[in-house]
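Figure 2 data, in text form.
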Amino acid sequence: MITRIVKLHFQEDKIEDFLTFFETIKHNVNTFEGCQGMKLLRDLHTPTIVMTYSHWENEQALENYRLSETFGIIWPKIKPWFAEKPEAWSVDAVFDGFSSRL
């Protein structure tokens, strides 16, 4: 499993547009084949910054999403709303203190 973190910084007058749009597409991403779950996180001090935090079966599953019609609809819609270039990381967990608390 890999974790994908994507930081998106939106223009101030576009963040609400994004959040409204996200409500319409979140389940399409969250239930995409190979996606094991997703969160949308919002910065406490800069509310125009959000991050998606998602788990994928493997890199091929993530790549399949990036090549999908779903991504092809989402990305062109939100890209003009960015205030800065998005940043993305694909990471492996070295330590997971969340699962040990269950």
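Caption note: The chain has a mean pLDDT of 96.
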